[in-house]
Structure formats: C-alpha cells, structure tokens
Design brief:
CATH class of the largest domain: Alpha Beta
Bound molecules: 2'-O-acetyl adenosine-5-diphosphoribose
Number of helices: 10
Structural class: alpha/beta
CATH superfamily of the largest domain: TPP-binding domain
Shape: elongated
Order of helices and strands: HEHHHHHEHEEEEHEHEEH
Distance between the termini: 24 Å
Strand content: 15-25%
CATH topology of the largest domain: Rossmann fold
Number of domains: 2
Largest sheet: 6 strands, parallel
Amino acid sequence: MTVQTVVDRLRRATRVTILTGAGVSAASGVPTFRGADGLWRTYRAEELATPDAFAGDPALVWEWYAWRRGLIASCFPNAAHDVIARWSRTFTRCRVLTQNVDDLHLRAGTTGLVRLHGSIWELACWRGCGAPPWRDESHPFPMLPPRCPRCGGLARPAVVWFGESLSAADVAAAYDACACEVFLTVGTSAIVYPAAGLVHEATRHGAFTVEINLEPTPASSVVDAALQGPAEQILADMARRLHHETLL
Ligand code: OAD
C-alpha cells in the first residue's frame, strides 16, 4: 500500500480517527519510552510510572517527572502535530486519541482530543482528599515533591500509571471513535493496552486502518496499510497531496 492509497481513502472519508504515541513527539525532542533515547538513568517507564514506585520513593518519581516537564517545556509541536491539528478541524468528524501526556497536540490546536493517559501538566492529591486535579505548569517546582493545595499532603502527577485504570469516559470515547472510515495509528509501539486494542476495534467496525511508524510493531500485521518512516514526514506528505487534490 502506498501513501497515495491512504490519501484516496482520506479524501472520501468524513469520520477519521487518529491514535498517537510517543513517536509523534519524537521530532519535537520529547524522548520516547522504548526507543534508544527513552532511557532515564537506569530506570524504565514501567519501573517509575506505577503507584508502588511512587509509594516507595515519591521524591525519585517526582524527580523523573520534573525532568520530563523541563524537557517538554522547551519543545514545540512538529509537522505531525500540525497536520493532525489541521485534520481535527477539517474532517467532519475527527477524533484524536493520544497516549502522550506532553500536551503538544493541544498546543498545536487539535480539537476533539482524548488524552488517554492524562497530562503531565496536571496534578492530583495522592491521598485522594477530594481536591479536583489542578493544572500546574511551573518548572522547576519551587518545592519538590509538590503538595496538595487543599490538604497539604503529597501531590502526584495526574497521569495514568501502570496498574491504574483509564478514565471510563475516555475509554468509552475512544471505543466510540473506532466507528470510523479511516483509523490511523501513529508513532506508537502498540503494546500498551487498552490503546493497543483500538486498532482491532476499528477493524471490527470496517475501518480502513493505517499504521505510520519507523519500525514494524504488533499492529503492522493487522492494519490495511503499514507505512514505515517518520510520522512528521509521512503526514506532511499526505497533507500536501490531500490539500492539492482538494483544490483541483
Ligand atoms: P513507545 O516509546 O513505546 O513507542 C514509540 C514508537 O514510536 C516506537 O514504535 C517507535 O518506532 C516510534 N517512533 C519513534 N520516532 C518516530 C517517528 N519520528 N515517526 C514515527 N514513529 C516513530 O511509546 P508509546 O507507544 O506511546 O504509558 O507508549 C505507550 C505508553 O507506554 C505510554 O503512553 C506510556 C508508556 O510507558 C504510561 O506511562 C502509562
């Protein structure tokens, strides 16, 4: 399958759903989780992004998040975010489902966004005192670990950790979005569920499914078109072709 085949499908589509992962933000300088650049000291995301890790050493986990927040704060959306943002506004019904917590889709102006794993810029009370999650864009933090403004207890990043459930509303919205004509899975290793299961759901609904990734993943053998290469280049190429044809 070629890029042009996908563009032809997109041209006829009104309902388009795009699932994204860390690879979409790689060109912005945000490290991926499983790539060679994804290492932080000797830890892996699975060892730090868990409630047990936080309970055992909140300062270490916060140090990791503070490091990532500082990095992300200096990054800007890239061409992949820009194309997705544009499509989110131009297709009649476009849903963007992201596993990324960096907010770069939002900063690019994406509408109809479901942030399956939350946002690194939001905090919540670790104790669960009843304070609603709050936005905190400070970096560096004046005090680490940060505290809950209501009860003074430990604050935690309002992201979904391994072993935790995603918001039921977000999961419902994601499944609902799988009833589409074209489903793109972009820059994700397709191994973390439930996000990794969405492409199967889209297939079940008869969607034309497309993967864009630097390398093969478990989704590659499932999709109708597996395009190998950088998302920021492939999506920009698709947008150019789509826009050109729309003008004719
Ligand atoms: P991963 O780090 O697992 O995978 C990133 C994927 O992006 C890999 O398959 C790369 O080949 C691909 N990639 C890298 N650069 C790319 C580029 N320029 N263009 C296209 N593809 C590129 O990240 P995710 O799949 O997002 O969860 O990981 C899923 C979840 O696991 C994350 O949300 C996070 C993580 O642990 C939690 O923290 C709960």
